Amino acid sequence: MINYIWGGLMLISLVTAFATGRLEAVASAAMDGAAQAVTMMLSLLGVICLWSGIMEIARESGAVDMLARLMRPVTRLLFPKIPPKSEAADAIVMNIVANIFGMANAATPLGLKAMKELSRINKSPVASHEMCMFAVINTASFQLIPSTVIALRQGAQNPFEIIVPVWIVSILTLIAGCGAAKIFALRDAL
């Protein structure tokens, strides 16, 4: 569906540019946009490499495992039907920890593994409340260091000033999302 929307927008833009005699400006803007995309991609790649290295050091030093142990009581509260020492619980905790540390590349395979384990435990074609809660937590995840946003603000005077507002908004979003998921789970239980 989205392909048709994008295709339609491009077609309308080209027809309008042709009708108004601005086809050259559209072509120039397309090339400038492509060049800006490559520049942004390279700057993001550098920041991702830097933070991935720092997070790998945190993982190797045991900081990630320590945080995972601290997270277990919270995950038991959010996922009461998941056995605490199961593969699903381990993958969930590691995914949340990876997201907190801003390791999106490491969090994705852990999230897929967690969802696969949750699906195996669920044994139903309909998503369980634990699966929905996990999706909410991944969608509204909290990050200590929002490295992608910092990288996008690279040219600003203080690119790190975004950290506290991001913390506030992501914590509020996470609380609201988890609260809504719990309310729906309770409603379905009645």
What brief labels describe this structure?
190 residues; mainly alpha; 79% helix
Structure commentary:
By secondary structure, the chain is mainly α. It has one domain. The chain is 79% helix and 0% strand. The chain is built from eight helices and no strands. α5 packs antiparallel against α6. The longest helix is centred in the N-terminal third of the chain and has 39 residues. The model has no long low-confidence stretch (mean pLDDT 85).
Low-confidence stretches: none
Morphology call = globular
Q: Mean pLDDT across all residues, rounded? A: 85
Main sheet specs = none
Total DSSP E strands: 0
Order of helices and strands: HHHHHHHH
Q: State the distance separating the first and last CA atoms.
A: 37 Å
Describe what is shown at a glance.
The chain is 79% helix and 0% strand. With 190 residues, the protein is mainly alpha-helical.
